[in-house]
Specification:
Layout: E1 2-4, H1 15-18, E2 25-30, E3 35-41, E4 48-52, H2 63-71, E5 75-79, H3 98-111, E6 117-122, H4 124-135, E7 140-146, H5 157-160, H6 180-187, H7 189-197, H8 200-207, H9 225-228, H10 250-263, H11 266-270, H12 275-282, E8 291-300, H13 315-320, E9 321-329, H14 335-338, H15 340-353
Parallel strand pairs: 1-9, 4-5, 4-6, 6-7, 7-8, 8-9
Antiparallel strand pairs: 2-3, 3-5
């Protein structure tokens, strides 16, 4: 099916978090191996909908979706993923392999009662939601993947580069296509982190921009990182940039910056350093990683990196998902922020079509 064009709580650790809606509470759960900070709203006895963020995000990216679905009877939970916000940030890069993060989410899910949930993931959160569904399907009723599709052989350079659209990225000019920025992490990690950390607020403001329809079919700036000597070129720091208020509410963006001021970009960027481990983990999934649960993929029309329209990027997901629905939104990569209510509508329509709505439980 294709849906097209769908236009006892802890205190918040920082002052900016305290400005959050009273309906959203902050909690922390820990085990011997990991601590997870998470946000929660909605009825405690409602069916679970768990939202997983990606790079370089925070649980607060899901505010609009959480508040909408909580009002409809869902118990909505959004963790800070490993390396982010109030959650543990191990020093070792190997600690950010997918298997470790899936284990974090399995522990959190058990803590929340362990009933099958709707898992909603964006960016690297999409990778984790799909990995959890493939490895531990009993934890899911359905999965929503936003911006990054599912790859049964792992979201890793050996998987991604062969799928590059060479009409846009000729191999002699762009050997890694739009994934050049990913390659740069693996070859110049310290430099990449240093550039982002040089002015964290400006880095974040420059990263979170709305989509540009005129960019479709043109090489992404992310394909030029290596030849520029870094994301920001010779400056090695983000230019002064005003955050887009249409994307982040001001208090939430302040909380995002505060979290990165505290911990920096090193741990979030370490997620890109585990291709070998992630491929090995993916290949241990039952049934070759095939997912039989209902899956919704939400595509950004203007996403130069991840769009599955007009290319082969979505083919592995189509082959591996037995019950796949796709929706296309008029935004780029930051769909939870760019298309707040349109994303709610796309998820709601899919939930209702699949008989997964809170009202039917």
């Amino acid at each position: 099916m294709i849906l097209m064009g769908l236009g006892a709580a802890a205190t918040f650790p920082k002052g900016t978090w305290a400005a959050s809606s009273a309906a959203v509470v902050s909690r922390t759960f820990g085990t011997a191996r990991h601590k997870t900070h998470y946000l929660e709203c909605g009825p405690a006895d409602g069916p679970l909908m768990i939202f997983l963020h990606g790079w370089p995000e925070l649980s607060l990216i899901w505010r609009a979706q959480m508040e909408s679905f909580a009002a409809e009877g869902w118990r909505c939970v959004a963790p800070d993923m490993r390396g982010y916000g109030g959650s543990s940030a191990p020093a070792s890069s190997e600690a950010y392999a997918n298997e470790q993060v899936v284990s974090d989410m399995a522990e959190l899910h058990d803590h929340l009662g362990g009933k099958p949930a709707i898992w909603v993931g964006h960016d690297w959160g999409s990778v984790i939601a799909a990995s959890l569904a493939a490895h531990e399907p009993a934890r899911s009723r359905g999965v929503v993947l936003i911006s990054v599709p599912y790859f049964p052989d792992a979201n890793a350079l050996p998987t991604l580069v062969p799928l590059v659209d060479r009409r846009i990225y000729p191999a002699d000019q762009y050997p890694d296509g739009q994934w050049d920025y990913y390659r740069y992490y693996t070859t110049h990690f310290d430099a990449a982190v240093s550039d982002l950390d040089a002015d964290k607020a400006a880095s974040l403001a420059s990263i979170y921009r709305s989509g540009d329809p005129s960019s479709i079919g043109k090489p992404s700036a992310n394909s030029l990182v290596t030849r520029k000597g870094g994301r920001f070129g010779d400056a090695h720091r983000a230019p002064p940039t005003t955050p887009d208020p249409a994307l982040w509410p001001a208090t939430d963006f302040a909380a995002l910056v505060e979290a990165f001021d505290d911990h920096g970009f090193r741990s979030p960027c370490a997620w890109y350093l585990n291709d070998t481990a992630n491929i090995a983990y993916a290949r241990r999934a039952p049934n070759g990683g095939r997912i039989s649960l209902p899956v919704l993929f939400v595509n950004g029309e203007y996403d130069q990196i991840n769009s599955i329209k007009g290319n082969r990027y979505g083919d592995p997901m189509r082959a591996a998902c037995a019950d796949l629905t796709t929706a296309n939104l008029l935004g780029a990569h930051w769909l939870p922020l760019e298309c707040k209510q349109e994303l709610v509508q796309a998820i709601r329509a899919w939930v209702q079509t699949k008989g997964l709505s809170a009202a039917r439980l």
